[in-house]
Amino acid sequence: VEHKTNVRVLMFRYLAYGHITPFFELAKKLSDEGFSIDLCSTPINLSLIKKKITEKYSCSIHLVEFHLPNLPELPPHYHTTNGLPIHLQSTLYKAITMSKPQFYEILKDQKPNVLVHDLMQPWATGVASSLNIPSIKFCLTSIAMCSYFGHFFLKPGVEFPFPALYLKDYEREIMRPYDVEVKEELGENRAVMLVNSSRAIDGEYMDYLSEIGKTEILPTGVVIQDIAINEEEMEIIKWLGNKMENSTVYVSFGSENFLTKEEMEEVAYGLELSNVHFIWVVRFPKEEQVVSLEDVLPQGFLQRNIGEKGRIIECWAPQTTILKPPSIGAFLTHCGWNSTLECIEFGVPIIGLPMNFYSDQPLNARLIVENGVAVEMARNGNGKIHRGNVAETIKNVFFGEKNIGEDLRRKVKGLRENIKLLREEEMDEVVMVLKQICEKNQSKMDA
Length: 447
Ligand code: UDP
What we know:
Belongs to the UDP-glycosyltransferase family. It comes from Solanum pinnatisectum (tansyleaf nightshade). The chain has 447 residues and is of the alpha/beta class. It has 18 helices and 13 strands. The protein has helices at residues 20-32, 43-50, 89-98, 100-110, 124-130, 143-154, 169-175, 179-185, 199-213, 231-241, 261-274, 293-296, 301-305, 319-323, 337-345, 361-370, 387-399, 404-446; strands at residues 8-12, 36-41, 61-65, 114-118, 135-139, 192-195, 216-219, 248-252, 277-282, 310-314, 328-333, 350-352, 374-376. Strands 3-2-1-4-5-6-7 form a seven-stranded parallel sheet, with helices on both faces. The protein has a six-stranded parallel sheet with strand order 10-9-8-11-12-13, with helices on both faces. Strand 4, helix 5 and strand 5 (135-139) form a beta-alpha-beta unit. The chain is globular, with a radius of gyration of 22 Å. 42% of the residues are buried. It binds uridine-5'-diphosphate.
């Protein structure tokens, strides 16, 4: 591979599963542009990426190990492959932040021209600047969500100018304690921020946050994980292949959520009542005790529904592979940002059911409803999932009189096209700005 620049970028991402892919995909794109990339993460996380570094990237993408302290609250197996239960996120956050001195040593050793770090590790900016290394944050959620919180921090007392984005009562109460964290993330040194998105999705929010936050926001043009087919995945693909076009709903709530027993029941009965074919990824904590699918699902559900009607995949599914076949008619999702982008890239209508009210999910849901590519499933007034709503919403999208499904599909495909049109231009700008930042720093150092 011919290298067009000799710029070295060190990329340092947060450890949650949803952050692996966007960093790696961006690394590949930058490497295509001639940058040399050091991906810094824990050995277990790096081992997931190592398998994906093809010959093409073997000279330009390098792995740099970062070690977490051994906190007793963070058992070693939770560092592994398929995401992390949400209740351990704060411990993980603490563990990474404790590793600041180690990260200082890594940067000092590697001396990259620029650091690209996760917005969720805001302290990395300070470590880099103490070594005169310029840095850029990489945001892995919608700028719609960042501008919503940025607004309340930067413009207190002023009404938020986009009525499509709002929090419901039951969401707002839970969100409050997290304000402090949001403030820190949007804090000082807001010069340039990359985001895994496109101006086609939340461009007006990018303009707004740029204006109030004095930040230059650069979308990378939506990067999602590659499709990888292996043999176990084939069986489900064959099953999907025998289904009619737009006949099946894919149901998954991301890498971090475990539904409560009550929620599991409501989703199960809702799917059953909808009478739509389904593939449901069921996750439950396994470490604490031995449990099986029979223990977590309503009695008789498997016998009545599994076979031709529906499929359950335990714990982890090849999501992008499943989203591709034409038999998938909608994705019932928690609106994690990666899942949202994957839906759009595969032209799949979205049924949004945000799960973690203190995360980006509720605002992501409002954003994609505003874009016309999603409907949001109603919860009861107290925020509980109800089987009747589950069944009705799915039925509406699949068989509704007003052709809701058709309309969503048309719009999601339109959005995908608009993203595609902007992609090259957006990436070119990212590359140009990265080079400029490095050059500016070099001449400052030379002076
Ligand atoms: N994912 C997957 N299989 C699963 C669950 C999740 O491949 O069974 C992938 C999904 O395709 C996405 C990521 O994990 O790329 C989840 O990220 P997202 O932002 O949607 O949600 P989070 O897990 O962060 O809540």
